[in-house]
Design a protein that fits this description.
Elements (H helix, E strand, L loop, with lengths): L16 E6 L10 H9 L2 E4 L5 H4 L7 E3 L11 H13 L3 E6 L9 H11 L3 E4 L4 H8 L13 E5 L13 H7 L2 E5 L5 H10 L7 E6 L7 E6 L3 H5 L8 E5 L6 H4 L23
Parallel strand pairs: 1-4, 1-5, 2-3, 2-4, 6-7
Antiparallel strand pairs: 7-10, 8-9, 8-10
């Protein structure tokens, strides 16, 4: 049963429909109430590789299908995912498409929504906390600040081939936004730094790598544009990692030591929840 505040009534997750749901950056506590309701109601869950095991454990159904796409690893073609969503909905299932972060922020949710609409399959889009927002908050990095940063850009780190997109105008982005947040870009850190340096950014500009954001394994590694490529090469390429560049990184040293950022975790089976009696 979905745990909701007593005055809230969850909308129907109708049979024969698909919910495109953001699972957030990893901490189960960052799920929305709509997402929790979907996990408790769905007949089938199709999930990305970035959805944490603790979140998948909240699903009431045992039918969990991995359709993840990870750089350098196994991939499920997007067309096959679209077709599977449509087929399962037409069979009368309540289909939950669960994505790490937000489904419409580098999550291919727009493509899936278009496919469902073209097929006449009803669907709902449930936003999630994007990694670029949740991950930076969990690391003690404010994305904006009245005196340091008034703009932020969220940028993909690779194209369909896995390379840094050739038409990505980093010079313009670096001039137009005070803070740059790159998704799925660890392998491209050196190329990103080289382009920004060539565009006139200072070699000492601060860079942070946030790996496994908002999970118990979160790691923040600091660098500069001059050292970003070398530092990135020391990090595990299989861990999901954000790259953040901008003056707000200077604030982390004051914020992070006082930041309470422990994620929610699953209690052992049958154990009482804190603050409850059995």
């Amino acid at each position: 049963m979905t745990v909701l505040p007593s005055r809230l009534v969850a909308p129907e997750f109708a049979r024969g429909s698909v919910w495109l749901v953001g699972a957030g950056p990893g901490d189960p506590g960052l799920l929305t109430l709509h997402a929790a309701h979907a996990l408790a109601t769905a007949d089938i869950v199709l999930h990305d590789a970035l959805v944490s095991p603790d979140i998948l454990a909240l699903a009431a159904t045992p039918v969990l299908l991995s359709v993840g796409k990870r750089a350098g690893g196994l991939r499920t073609h997007q067309m096959r995912i679209n077709q599977k969503l449509i087929a399962l909905a037409r069979q009368g299932h309540r289909v939950l498409r669960l994505k790490g972060g937000d489904p419409l922020v580098f999550g291919r949710g727009g493509e899936e929504a278009l496919a469902l609409a073209a097929a006449g399959v009803p669907f709902r889009i449930v936003p999630g906390i994007s990694a670029g927002i949740g991950g930076t908050a969990g690391a003690g990095i404010p994305l904006t600040h009245r005196t340091l940063a008034r703009s932020v850009a969220f940028i993909t780190g690779h194209d369909l081939s896995g390379a840094l997109p050739r038409d990505l105008d980093l010079a313009a982005l670096g001039q137009g936004a005070d803070v740059l947040v790159f998704y799925m870009a660890l392998r491209q850190a050196g190329a990103i730094a080289a382009r920004l340096l060539a565009a006139g950014h200072a070699p000492g500009s601060a860079v942070a790598f946030i790996s496994d954001a908002t999970t118990p394994f979160q790691q923040v590694t600091e660098a500069t544009l001059a050292t970003a490529g070398t530092v990135a090469a020391t990090l595990d390429p299989h861990r999901p990692t954000l790259i953040v560049i901008g003056p707000v990184l200077a604030l982390r040293v004051m914020i992070a030591p006082w930041l309470q950022a422990a994620p929610m975790t699953l209690a052992p089976e049958g154990a009482a929840q804190p603050g409850t009696s059995r």
